[in-house]
Structure formats: C-alpha cells, structure tokens
From TrEMBL:
Domain (3-hydroxyacyl-CoA dehydrogenase C-terminal): residue spans on this chain: 483-576, 612-697
Organism whose genome encodes this protein: Paraburkholderia phymatum (strain DSM 17167 / CIP 108236 / LMG 21445 / STM815)
Gene Ontology terms for molecular function: (3S)-3-hydroxyacyl-CoA dehydrogenase (NAD+) activity; enoyl-CoA hydratase activity; isomerase activity; NAD+ binding
UniProt KW Lipid metabolism keyword: yes
Protein name (Swiss-Prot/TrEMBL): 3-hydroxyacyl-CoA dehydrogenase NAD-binding
An example Gene Ontology biological process: fatty acid beta-oxidation
A matching Pfam family: 3HCDH
Length: 706
C-alpha cells in the first residue's frame, strides 16, 4: 500500500459490511495525537453505522504502526491518551480485526492486542521494545500481553525489546493467523469476511486466560525479577515491567491498568527515557551526513581488504556478512594463511555458540578469496586497508591500490589516527580516498567513523554511508585529526584518569566509579583487555613530539617495562588467574604507583567516587566540545553516538554531550576552571563550552540548530 502526502492520518472506508480503517501517518504510522483521535473516531463511526458489522485496521506504507510518537514524549499530554484508545477499541461492540505488515511495535502492538482478532503477513515485525527507550508498554501492553500469551513469553518480549516474525507470533499466540500472501489488505479483508461469515464474537484480550495458571505466572515473574536485577544494572524500566506483570497476575484488569499507567509515567518522566530517546533519534540523525543528500553513492558489489590481522579479518567478516564477495591481500602465503585462520576463527566461535551453522559458514566463505598479489583487487568496488599503523607502510599500500584498482573504486583506510589527507595526497586519485575507521572486534562493534579528508568527492562519502548501512553499522561523519572523534577524546579522558591515579586514587577505585556511572568497564580494565603494549608503543612513537611541559604520568610505562600488558600476560593493572577474565587488584601495582607518586613529588590525597566521575567526565566533555568546535564532529549528537556505540558510554545517559546538558554547563565549566588552576596546560575550557555558557544555551540547542 502507498500513502498519499495530504491524506488524513486515519481514513475510514466502508467496504460492504466492513469498516476499513487505514492508519496513514508517514514515515512509520506513529500514534501521534491526530492518529489517536482518528482511531477513536473510527470506532465511534463503526458503532454508529448499522451497516458496518466489523472493523478492519491496517497501516499504510511499509508498516502497521511503529508505536507511540516518540516526539511527543516530555511534552504536555494531549487527549485521548493511547490507553484510552486501546480501551475504546477493546470495548467496541463489533469485532475489531487488525492485519499487520511491517512493524507492529510498542503502542502499535498494543493496538493489536486491544483488537479482537489479529492477522500478520510474512515480513511483519512484532515487539514491545519500549524498554529500549527507558519505558514500559504503557497502553495496556503489560496487562494484555501476559493474559494473551502467558507471563513468561510476555516478559521475554518486554524485557528484551526484541522483534519477532509472523510465524513465531503465531506459535506464541500473539496473532491468530498468518496470511498466505504478503498482500496485507487482501489477507485482512479475507480474514475479516471469514470471521463475519462465522459470526465470530467480540473476543477481548482482557478476558483471555494466559494467566490462569497462577503458579507458572508467579514462577516466571520470580525468574525475571532475579535476572533483571542482575542484567539491567542502573536501568529503571525493566524492574517496573516485572512489577506490572505481577500486577496483571494479582490485580483485576482495571487496577492493573492503573498500576501500569503510574509506572509508565514514572519512566516517561525519568532522565533515562530522555537519554534513550535521544540515543534513538541521534542514531538516525547521524546517517544523514550532508553528502548523503547532495550525492549518489557508487554501486558496491565487491570488496577487498588489505591486511589479515585481527582488524582486517574482522572487517572481512563484516563485509562477508553483508553478502559481499571479499578478496583479502597479504604480503606472503604464511600471512595470508593467518588471515584466513582469523576469519575462520570468528565463524567457528559463532558455530560454537550455536549462532551459525557449518553450512552457513561454508556459504559465506565461498565468497572469500585471498591473494598475495594486489592485482586481485582490479575489479573491487571498495578496498579497505587495515595494515600496520605507520604512514610509510600505508602510503606504500595506497600506491599499489592506485596502480591496480579500477577507476572509481573507493579506496579506504582503517587508520585510527594517521593523517588521511597525507595518505590521499600521495596518489593520483585523492578524490577516491576516505577513512573507514572500524572498532575492534570489527564484525561486532556498531560504530564506524567515516573520516572525510579534504579532497574526497561527495559521492565517495555517500558510498561510505551506504556501505555502513549494508554492514549494519552506525556511521558517524568525522573530520581528519589525530584520533578523529572517539580516540581523540579517549586519549584526553584517559589522561585525566592517569592524573587522578597519580594524585591518589587507585586504578581500582577509578574503574569502580566509572562502572557505577554505567560503563561496562573502567579505563584500566579496558587497557588490560586490549593490551597495555598497544598504548605503550604509541607513547614511545610520540615521545619526541610530546610537549615537554605537558604532564606525563609514567605509571603505565612502569607496568609495561615489566611485561605486564594485561589479560594476555596474566598481569596488568590487575592480576588474572589462569582461565579467569576478571582480574583482582594487585598490591604490587599499588606499590609501583606509590613509588611513582613519590618520584613525581606528589603527596597522595583521597578522592570520592563523585570527584573521580566529575573530573573524568569533565575531560571527556571538554574534548567533545573541542571536537565539535573544530568541526571534526558535525554536532554534539555525533559525539554522543560515537561514545555510545564505540566506547561503552551508557545509552541511558545519552552520550557525554547529552549528559553534560543534564548536569548543567555552568557547573561543568566551573569545575574545569577549578582544575585549570592546578594544571592550566591540560585543562583549557573549550571555546564552545564557554560560548554556550555565556549564551545560556545547551549542547542540545546545537543539535537542533544544525
Ligand atoms: C511506545 O509505543 C509507548 C507505548 O507503549 C505507550 C504509550 C502510552 N515515533 O528507524 P527508521 C522515525 S514507545 C516517531 O530510520 P526503519 C525515525 O525517527 C515506541 N518517529 O526506519 C525516523 O525519522 P527521520 C515504541 C519515529 O525503516 C523515521 O521514523 N516503538 C518512531 O529503519 C524512520 O525510522 C519503538 O520503539 C516513533 N515511534 O525502521 C519503535 N519510530 O526520518 C521505534 C521511528 O526523521 N522505531 N520514527 O529520521 C523503530 O524501531 C524503527 O523506526 C522501525 C522502522 C523498525 C519502525
């Protein structure tokens, strides 16, 4: 079905003895106030027309209904509310049938649950993903879903936020029928006529018996409660979902609805909801880089990867998973064999976890080829270089690519910090050179920094965004500078952590404070995981260009000099017992830190966790502001998406720039000015932060303005 631009958001049409109600609110038929009013009016009309014997609700365009309109959250409520709409549908005295195609999510599925009969066609995606937005299904979903499909299945849907297909929904009892074809209107009309001819009665989900076995319900709730307490650290809505299902089990329907409404409003008003909705919207905004509007992407049907190390292999897997044929180049047979082995290992890991079959692996690998000759890349549409991080090595690779690749091929580098303008300048086609900065493991991590050098043509940038979509990555447009967006910020906030450590906080306290903020790991756990030798090599390489007046904390070097590189050597900032990934604090490390403090002439002092977090976050945000100020990132939201998708920043805090707005920019600037008194070289307030404070504005105002 297609939608017309000025159509009313809900259209009613009599089709014989059936009232056909079409929700038509592009792009995703969200349940904004006009749609809610339209749906109530449609039900009233159905009640009023004697000729209408039943109601069929469908969605126009690509989806049934994607849920409540998230743009209305945080604004004054407008009547009718979505629970009112669902209740009105359920109360209708004539059978209400929904026919679902595309997304029936959140409030969209709640509309379906309130209807009396449900059909879905192949390709339908059903789910209650509110939890991912810091919410719970608040239009009766927590009360109706368990009654319809039982507490366990309902909890699983609501706590995971996952989408399920039509067949699974049928098995679960979420829908009554799966259409024979994907023509949702025809399927819906046929089903409705059949129900009418059978004199099918009005059948209300509130009366369904999914919770009749109260022992099974109570057991599912107990398991979910224990699991949620463990897994959903810091999150507000998951436990409330469990409470609501408990209410469904223990309270009459109307009371359960009231209970749900109160919990929903608590979630709606929480900063977590604001942060998670920001994260959702920001992830969509980053896809719309200026070049994606001004230029057409080049076609990408085949890819090459230069380098078969961990990064190259991960990138190859990401490309293979996107269905592309991939050619890997290595300098000799032994290196190529290692590259293949890396790719194999990734897939074997998935097979071991039951996420991939041997057959599927074989099919993917049938598209994988390796060569020691660059000539094998002659037909590739895109080549991604992932060789050793050294300018001369990279330039040599690009000279080869320039020699062998066909005109128009996109030539990408996966460098983490080298000057891509310099790489591009070395060859005859700088307009084709771009940065595609993947994060390790490259086939898993969602973030892809699309680094845009000065001379690249717009269609190459558009191609990079198009490729990111194929790879199911979240692309963020970044400018060229040392470390681009993410690693540049990381260098600064890690340095701030080192300063704290040298001044008296233990790495264990810093890690704990950062974890409590919501990060999965603290900075020293991350170093131990990645390998301390990586940062050490970079520090040594940069030693000659470092500002001799800048503060340099030597503690990490002292550990590396002992060969303590982290998990892989069983010692780093932590000690790791054989086979254990969790480390334990190491008194010898603490002694080394003490000695270093003494050598640096620092008398250690105590820090509270709050002081640690304030300083750590101030460093991160200040550098984020610099990155925006220098146009390395387009907007604050690009920084947020980068940190959330590549650096473990908790989505429920919305990224560092959103977080900065929540704590207030004047307070943040005051902190930075205070730190500046002790270390003016490190702590220079970002001009953008100063400007925003002077104007009384927020980072969010910049997201809106651009
Ligand atoms: C809820 O329902 C609460 C209720 O329980 C209780 C209430 C009382 N509202 O993702 P796309 C926009 S909470 C407004 O790129 P796709 C989106 O921002 C809601 N706008 O497309 C984008 O805008 P733009 C529970 C929305 O095809 C455009 O649509 N529902 C909404 O890749 C296209 O989006 C959810 O959490 C919305 N609800 O994927 C579902 N959804 O063009 C959230 C999307 O300006 N939505 N937009 O950038 C999705 O998961 C995906 O959008 C969907 C389509 C799968 C539907």
């Amino acid at each position: 079905m297609t939608s017309t631009p000025d159509a009313a958001p809900v259209n009613c049409e009599l089709r014989g003895n059936l009232l056909l109600v079409t929700v038509d609110n592009p792009p995703v038929n969200a349940l904004g106030v006009e749609v809610r009013r339209g749906l109530v009016a449609a039900i009233e009309a159905a009640e009023a027309y004697a000729v209408a014997k039943a109601v069929l609700i469908v969605g126009a365009g690509r989806n049934f209904i994607a849920g409540a309109d998230i743009r209305e959250f945080g604004k004054p409520p407008q009547m009718p509310t979505l629970p009112d709409v669902c209740n009105r549908i359920e109360a209708c005295s004539k059978p209400v049938i929904v026919a679902i195609h595309g997304a029936a999510l959140g409030g969209g599925l709640e509309i379906a649950l309130a209807a009396h009969y449900r059909l879905a066609v192949a390709g339908a995606k059903l789910g209650l993903p509110e939890v991912l937005l810091g919410l719970l299904p608040g239009a009766g979903g927590t009360q109706r879903a368990p009654r319809l499909i039982g507490a366990e299945a309902a909890l699983s849907l609501m706590l995971s936020g996952k989408h399920i297909g039509a067949q699974d929904a049928l098995k679960m009892g979420l829908v009554d029928r799966v259409g024979q074809s994907d023509d949702v209107l025809t399927e819906g009309l046929t089903y409705a006529q059949q129900l009418l001819s059978e004199h099918a009665p009005v059948r209300r989900t509130r009366d369904a018996q999914g919770l009749a076995d109260t022992d099974a319900g109570a057991a599912a709730i107990a398991v979910a409660r224990a699991d949620t307490a463990k897994k959903s650290r810091g999150l507000l809505s998951p436990l409330k979902i469990v409470d609501c299902v408990n209410a469904a089990l223990t309270l009459p329907f109307e009371d359960g609805l009231r209970f749900e409404r109160a919990r929903f409003i608590e979630c709606l008003d929480s900063p977590q909801r604001a942060a998670l909705v920001h994260a959702f919207q920001a992830e969509r905004q980053v896809q719309k880089a200026p070049e994606t509007r001004s230029a057409q992407p080049r076609p990408i049907a085949s890819a090459g990867v230069v380098g078969g190390g961990t990064m190259g292999a991960g990138i190859a897997v990401a490309l293979l998973d996107a269905g592309l044929p991939v050619t890997m180049i290595e300098r000799d047979d032994a290196s190529l064999a290692r590259g293949r082995a890396h790719v194999d290992k990734v897939y074997d890991g998935l097979i071991a976890k039951g996420r991939l079959t041997h057959d599927a692996k074989a099919k993917k690998l049938a598209r994988f080829a390796g060569s020691t000759s660059y000539d094998a890349l002659a037909e590739a549409d895109v080549v991604i270089e992932a060789v050793f991080e050294d300018m001369a090595v990279k330039q040599a690779v690009f000279a080869e690519l320039d020699r062998v690749c066909k005109p128009g091929a996109v030539l990408a580098t996966n460098t983490s910090y080298l000057d891509i303008d310099a790489i591009a300048a070395g060859i005859a086609r700088p307009q084709d050179v771009i940065g595609l900065h993947f994060f390790s493991p490259a086939h898993v991590m969602k973030l892809l920094e699309v680094v845009v050098p000065a001379r690249v043509s717009a269609d190459v940038v558009a191609t990079a965004f198009d490729l990111a979509k194929k790879l199911r990555k979240v692309p963020v447009r970044a400018g060229v500078c040392d470390g681009f967006i993410g690693n540049r910020m990381l260098a600064v906030y890690r340095a701030a952590a080192d300063h704290l450590m040298e001044e008296g906080a233990s790495p264990y306290q810093i890690d704990k404070a950062v974890r409590e903020l919501g990060f999965p790991m603290g900075p020293y756990q991350v170093i131990d995981l990645a390998g301390g030798d990586i940062g050490w090599a970079t520090r040594k390489r940069r030693a000659s260009t470092r500002d001799p007046n800048a503060r340099y904390v030597q503690i990490p070097d002292r550990l590396c000099e002992r060969g303590w590189f982290g998990q892989k050597t069983s010692r780093g900032f932590y000690r790791y017992e054989a086979g254990q990934r969790a480390g334990t604090p190491d008194p010898e490390v603490e002694a080394i830190i003490d000695a270093e403090r003494e050598r640096a002439g620092i008398t250690p002092r105590a820090f509270s966790d709050e002081q640690i977090v304030r300083r750590y976050m101030a460093a991160m945000i200040n550098e984020g502001a610099n990155v925006i100020h220098e146009r390395i990132a387009l907007r604050p939201l690009d920084v947020d998406v980068t940190l959330m998708n590549g650096f473990g920043f908790p989505a429920w805090r919305g990224g560092p720039m959103h977080y900065a707005d929540t704590i207030g920019l004047p307070a943040l600037l005051a902190d930075i000015r205070e730190f500046e008194k002790r270390d003016p070289l490190f702590w220079k307030p970002s001009p953008l932060l100063v400007e925003l404070v002077e104007r009384g504005e927020t980072f969010a105002s910049l997201n809106r303005a651009m």
